[in-house]
Amino acid sequence: MSRSPLVADLRSDTLTRPTAGMRAAMAEAEVGDDVYGEDPSVNALEAEMAALLGKEAALFVPTGTMGNQICVRLLVPPAGELLCDADAHIVTYENGGAAQHGSVQTRTLVSARGLLDPDAVAAQVRPEGWGTVVTSAVAVEHTHNRGGGAVYPLETLRRLRAVTTERGAALHCDGARIFNAHVASGVPLATYGELFDAMSVCLSKGLGAPVGSVVLAGAEAIARGRVLRHRLGGAMRQAGIIAAAGRYAIAHHIERLAEDHRRAKELATAIADKAPGTVDPARVETNIVLIDTTGSGHDATSLTAAAAEEGVLVGVVAPRQVRLVTHLDVDDEGCARAAEVLSRLLAG
Ligand SMILES: *Cc1c(COP(=O)(O)O)cnc(C)c1O
Q1: How far is CA 124 from CA 107, 133, 173, 286, in A?
Q2: Which mutation among 65, 151, 288, 325 tests ligand 1's pocket best, with the greatest number of atoms within 8 A of CB?
Q3: Is-above-0.85 flag for pTM?
Q4: How far is CA 44 from each of CA 39, 41, 59, 116, 192, rounded to the nearest angstrom?
Q5: Is 85 within 8 Å of 108 (Cβ atoms)?
Q6: Mean pLDDT for each 10-residue chunk of the chain (348 residues)?
Q7: How far is the C-alpha of 302 from the C-alpha of 60, rounded, in Å?
Q8: Rounded to whole angstroms, how far apart are CA atoms 25 and 142?
Q9: Taking the CB of residue 172, how many other CB atoms lie within 10 A of it?
Q10: Which atom of ligand 1 lies nearest, measured to the CA of 63?
Q11: What is the pLDDT of residues 169-216, one digit of tens each?
């Protein structure tokens, strides 16, 4: 990947490896067959997550993509409609799963930084009785990945809840990075939880677990979700081995996300100092930094290749946009050196 020794791998917060403490927890996990409902570690994780997010029940799933797919199918009948922003993970990175698995029609709104505007949603949600496709659910992504880790203001989420309730639509949260949102905003996780009919949250992003996501909803919906998970091939056996990593992550790795946020802000500030106009540090709310290569003499692909030559790995998200993500496996020194390399390349 890179010619030089690795300085920092900022491509994604999915790249973390389990820590020694997490591996010990996995090695010691009590397990059973989760398809029989007999894995104590999975059962404990599901109970802990439901309590944390203030939902009735939870379901452990292998990936956030499966989590979203299950939630979409819980909330939208075949040939029904899901409304979301045009850059949402559900319509960008899930390979058409909503269409293939759920026969769900998606309709998208172009939104600043991926955050849906409640007025725009109100104008587009189609209730029953209009002779149109009914909008069964609206999906928000919190924080927003392609929106640069943007955090919804709580007031905006409350207005989205009011609009959807008024129109008879459900509200889903792709909360792959809900823990980042919680740490950045200070809003309690359960305050987020009570706003949504269904949520999917990742343990394998900033929290640092190797595998796993959790679906949260009412008890009846989770019972139906369990069947959908099995049908998708996601019913696992001694899954407590990986659930234990998730339990360890929620016990030890939530509050430390503030460090990732501080490092992302420092990275952005250092780059903006030397290469003005390529990044706006004020936009960095969590662990994601988006760099605009316009005017730098690089496009996203050439910048990524040049940085990799110097041991700094970053990701392409658009022809002129590069993404940096801070996480458990990058430290202050790695970020400082990455900032040096990237600002030199961008300042040309
Ligand atoms: C990572 C991510 C997911 C789920 O990804 P998996 O790789 O399937 O676990 C869903 N939504 C968002 C916004 C994500 O960033």
Answers
A1: 9, 11, 18, 29
A2: 65
A3: yes
A4: 9, 5, 11, 34, 21
A5: yes
A6: 83 97 98 98 98 98 98 97 98 97 97 98 92 96 98 98 97 98 98 98 97 98 98 97 98 98 98 96 98 94 97 97 98 97 94
A7: 39
A8: 29
A9: 27
A10: 9
A11: 999 999 999 999 999 999 999 999 999 999 999 999 999 999 999 999
Quick one: tokens of 129? Answer: 């009785």
Determine the atom of ligand 1 nearest the C-alpha atom of 65: 8
List phi, psi (to 5°) of 248. -65, -40
CA 69 to chain centroid: 14
Ligand 1 pocket: which residues have CB below 6 Å?
Answer: 63-65, 68, 89, 141, 145, 174, 176, 202, 204-205, 213
Pocket perturbation via mutation, ligand 1, pick of 14, 89, 201 by most ligand atoms within 8 A of CB: 89
Q: How far is the CA of 308 from the centre of ligand 1 (A)?
A: 24
The protein residue with its alpha carbon nearest to ligand 1, atom 14, reads 176
